[in-house]
Task: structure prediction
Amino acid sequence: MCAEELDFITKYDLLGCIQCGRCTGGCPVAMRTPLRVRCFMYDTQNQERLEELSERPEIWDCTTCYTCAARCPKGLEPLEVLIGLRSIQIEEGRVQPTVRDALESIFRDGNPWGSPRAKRLDWVKDLEVKVLEPEAEEVTDVLLFICCTDAYDPRVMKVAQSLVKVLQAWGVDFGLIGEDESCCGSEVRRLGEEGLFEMCDEENVELLNSFNVNRIVAISPHCYNTLKKEYHGLKHPVLHYTELVAQLLEDGKLQLKGELPKVVTYHDPCFLGKQNDIYDEPRYIITRIPGVEFREFDRCRERSLCCEGGGGKMWVESESKEERLAEIRVTDAKELGAEVIAVACPFCLLPLEDATKVKGIEEEMRVADILELLAEAL
Amino acid sequence: MNMVVCVKRVPDTAEAEVHIDASGKDIEKSRLSFKINECDNYAVEEAIQIKERLGGTVTVISLGPKENDEVIRMALAKGGDEAIRLEDEAFAGGDGFAVAKALAAAIKGMEFDIVFTGALADDDGYAVVPAALGELLGVPHATYVKKVEILEDGKRARVGRELEGGLLEFLEIDLPCVLGIQTGINEPRYASFKGIKQAAKKEIAVKSAADLGVDASEVGEAGSWAVLEKFTPPVVGEMAEILEGDPEETAAKLAAILKEKGLV
Amino acid sequence: MKDIFVLIEHRRGEMRDVSIEMLCGAAGLGGTVVAVLLGKDVDAFAEKAAGYADKVLYVNDPMFENYNSEAYQKALSALIKEHNPGLVLIGNTAQGIDLAPALAVELGAPLVTDVTALEMEGDKPKPTRQFYGGKLDAHMVMKDADLYILTVREATFQAGEPSKSGEIVKVENPVKEEITYRKFVEYVEPEVGEVDITQSTMLVGVGRGIREDKNLPIVEELAKVLGADLAASRAVVDAGWLPADRQVGISGKTVKPKLYLAVGISGAFQHVTGMKGSEVIVAINKDPDAPIFGIADYGIVDDLFKVVPKLTEKIKELKGL
Ligand SMILES: Cc1cc2nc3c(=O)[nH]c(=O)nc-3n(C[C@H](O)[C@H](O)[C@H](O)COP(=O)(O)OP(=O)(O)OC[C@H]3O[C@@H](n4cnc5c(N)ncnc54)[C@H](O)[C@@H]3O)c2cc1C
Ligand SMILES: Cc1cc2nc3c(=O)[nH]c(=O)nc-3n(C[C@H](O)[C@H](O)[C@H](O)COP(=O)(O)OP(=O)(O)OC[C@H]3O[C@@H](n4cnc5c(N)ncnc54)[C@H](O)[C@@H]3O)c2cc1C
Ligand code: SF4
Ligand code: SF4
Result:
C-alpha cells in the first residue's frame, strides 16, 4: 500500500475536526457497541496506528447511517474514516467470510446473495413486465432499478411485485433491465471495497446509459443514493419510488379504493431521510390511503433511529449483546399504539420485521413497505 | 518451500438449474457463472500461508481456456508468484487421468516440494487428480488433507487426512509430495478487486500439449480412462416431498429415507 | 467372466458397510467374487466376508494394522498381477479415493470413481456416476482394457444376508520392504465441545419453533443418535439458547453438510442462504406454507415436539442402539 493512500489526514480532512463529540453523541450504535467515532477522527491522524485501528472489530459496527456527518458542525464525514479503515482490511484480504462471500458473489453474479444471475427475474413470477432493450428507438418513460434484495429475498420480492402492480394501475410506461441488472454497489463501497465499487460504477453507468428512458426509478433508497450521488456520468435523472408515486397521487389520476383502518407509523430510512432529505413524500402517500390513522414516532425525520440494516450490517453481526436498535424501534411503535410500521427500504423491512418476532408481537404489529400497503389499497 | 497449486475453474451450479445441452454430453453454460473450484481455493490459501511462514514460491497452474485467467489472477492477487495455463484443443473432454497427465508433464521439470490440488472437483467430482498426479510424478501423495505441518528438517510433513465422521488420520510423508486439500483446512482470504487488477500485470505462461511434450493421444478424450456417453436428469422434485401420516409414520418414513441415503 | 476383486475396508476394528454392499453387488454381476482383506489379525472380518464371497484373500501382516495407501497399493497391485481379475471394486471413501487413482495409474487400468449404478456389458462395466453435485446422472463409457477399477459410493448396492461360505486363503504379504516415505502416525478424534459447524457432515438446525431452551434436549438427543451437531437460526442465537458460532446464515456460517435437518425453522432467506448448499435438506415444521419447504428435499408438516422424539426412537432402532 502506498503512503498516499494511507494519508487519512488529507483524505478525510482530519485536521478540521474540533473533537466536539457531536458525531459520537448522535451515533445510534454507540448505544450498544464500543464504537466511538470521534476517537477515530483523532486516532487516525497517526499514520502508524492505521493498521492497528483497522483491526478493531467495532469499525464494522457502523451502519453508515450518516447521523454523525449530518451533525458535524465542521461538515466532516466521520463515517468515511471507518470505511477507509475497512478498506485497509479488504486490501489485505482479511475480512469475515460472510463479507468475502458477498463481495465475491457481486463480482461474479452481480448480487451479494450467492444466487445465479439466471434467477434475477424470478420475482416477476406471472406479472407481465417489459424487459428493456439497450439502444431501443422508442423511449420508455421509466426504468425500474430493482435492488438485489428485492430480486432475490422471497419476503422482499413482494415489495417489487407491489411496485409493478401500482405502476400498472396508473398506466405508467416502465421497463426492467432484466438478468443483466447488477448490484448498485452501495454496500460494496461501505464495506470498503473501493475497487469493486469502481467496477460497479463504470459497468452500471454504461449499462444504464444504453437505455432510452426518461428517468430511472430505484426501489431501494440505497440504490437510489448511489445512482444519484455516487456514480459518474449517469445521464438519466434518478428518483426514489416514493417521489414518483407521490407525484402520481398528486396528479389525482387514480383513486385508492381499498381501506386500511389502522394506526400506521413510518420509519424513515437513513438513506432516504438523513442522506437525501426525502421526508414528505412517504408521509404524503401513507396519509392518502383511506382509513389510515397516521402517528409519528417521537424520533422521526432527521432524528429517526437507524434500524441497523445498512452499511454492510447484513453480513457482519455485532459482538454486542445489547438490544438491537430495530427492537427498540418496534417497542417504540407499540407504545405509540401503531399497528403497522410502514417502511420504504428493503434493509429496514427485514430487521424491523425480525424484531417484531423477537419481541413476540408479530401478530399485532405488521411491518410493511409503503408499496405493499398501496397495492392492497388499489 | 517451492509449491505448485493446481486450480480448476468450474461452473457454479449450487443453486442454478442445470440443463443438458443438445449434444447430451454437456450442460448449457451460457447463463452460469464460473468460479474457482471450492477446495482449490483452500489449496491456494494453504500454499500462501506456508510461503508466508517459511518463504519460497507459489506457482499456479490451471488447465483450461483463457477464461481460467480470472481464477489464476485471484490466486496471484492473494500471493502467488508465477502462473501457467495449459491450453490445447487436444485437452478437451479429458477425465481426471487425462488432466493429471497434462499437469504432471507441466510440473515434471520444475523443482517443487509440494504440489497442492483440491481433493475433488465440484463439477465432475472424480477426485482422481491428487493420487494420480502423485503416481505420475513418482512422489507420495495424500488426499482429503485437513492439516499440513512442515516438519523441522523441511524434508517431511505431518499431514492430517479427514476420514468419515471427521476422524483425522495423521501421517508423516516425505517431500516432495502431492497433497489433495479438503475444504475447511483454513479460511481463504479475500482478493480485492484492486489486487486482482494488479495481478493482471503478472504474466501467465500459456503452454500447449506440444510445449509439454505430450502426445495428443495421451490427453483429452483420447487419453482418458472413460468418456461420457450421455447425461440424464435424475428423478427429483422441485418442492419437498412431504411425508404423510401421524408422527409415528412420518418419523419411520424419514428414518428409512435417511438410511437409504446412507445418512444413518 | 474373470474374477471380481472387492477390497474390504476396515478401520480401528470395524469393517465398513460399503465392503459388504460391494460384495453383494458383485455377486449380481456374474463371475467369482473375491474379497481382498489386508489387515493385522482381522480373522473375524475374513470370516464375515466369506459369508458373502466365493473366496477371501487374506493378508495378515502388521504392515496393514492401519491404512496406508502406499502399502495397500503395492500389495494390491501384486495380488492383481498374480490373480488377474477383470474388475476391482473399492469403496469410494476417504481411503478408497486415496488409493484407487494411483493404483489405476500404476496398472494402466481405467478407473471410474464414485459410481452410483453399475451394469455390465460382458466383461466391461458401464458405470453411472453423478455430476454437478448430483444434479445430473452421467453414463460413462470406459476404455477397453483387461482390467477395470471402480470406486463405489456407499449405499449403491444393498447389503443382504450372508449366503455363501467362501474359502479363506491366507496369503503371504507380497510387500517386502518397509514403506518409509509415508507413515501412519495416529488417529485424532474431532474435538468435542469446540464444534465447527462448517465442518460438520450432519447438522440439526434448530429454530424458534423450539420455543424455550429447556426444550433443547429433545433436539440434542436427535443430534446425538444421528451423530450430528446442532446449528441454529439467528432467532435461537439471539435468545441465547445456543452460542453465536452455531448460527447459520448470511451473518452466520455457511454450511454444506450431507444432511441438514431443519427443526422449527421457517426458512427466512437470510437463513437459507447459509445452508442451501447442503446435500440433503429435511424440514420439520408445523406450518405447511413455511418457505423452508421450498428448498427442502423432504418435509414433515407436524408438531416438532411430537415428531422429533419419534424420529430419535426410529433412528435408534435402525442403528440398533
Ligand atoms: C464430458 C467432459 C467434458 C469436458 N470438457 C472439458 C473442456 O471443455 N475443457 C476442459 O478444460 N476440461 C474439460 N473436461 C475435463 C474436466 O472438466 C476435468 O478437468 C477433468 O475431468 C479432471 O477431473 P476432475 O476435475 O474431476 O479432477 P478431480 O480429481 O476431481 O480434481 C481434483 C483437483 O485436481 C485439480 N484439477 C482438476 N482439473 C484441473 C484443471 N483443469 N486444471 C488444474 N487443476 C485441475 C484441482 O486441483 C482439483 O481440485 C471435460 C471432462 C468431461 C468428462
Ligand atoms: C440483517 C439480518 C441478518 C440476518 N442474518 C441471519 C442469519 O445469519 N441467520 C439466520 O438464521 N437468520 C438471520 N436473520 C433473521 C432471519 O430473517 C429470520 O428472522 C430468522 O432466520 C428466523 O428464525 P427461525 O426460522 O428460527 O424463526 P421463525 O421465522 O420465527 O420460524 C419459526 C418456525 O417454527 C415453526 N414452529 C413453531 N412451533 C412449531 C412446532 N411446535 N412444531 C413445528 N414447527 C414449529 C413455525 O411454523 C415457524 O415456521 C437475519 C435478519 C436480518 C434482518
Ligand atoms: S462532530 Fe465533526 S468536528 Fe465534532 S468530533 Fe465529530 S467529526 Fe469532529
Ligand atoms: S454513520 Fe451512523 S453508525 Fe456510523 S459512525 Fe456515523 S452515526 Fe455512527
User: Anything to note?
Assistant: The pocket of flavin-adenine dinucleotide (ligand 1) is lined by residues B 6-8, 25, 37, 39-40, 61-64, 91-96, 99, 103, 117-118, 120-121, 124-129, 228 (CB under 6 Å). Chain A touches chain B at residues 90-95, 97, 99-100, 103-104, 107-109, 114-119, 179, 193-196, 198-199 (CB under 8 Å). Residues 256-376 of chain A form a domain with the Rossmann fold fold (CATH 3.40.50.10700).
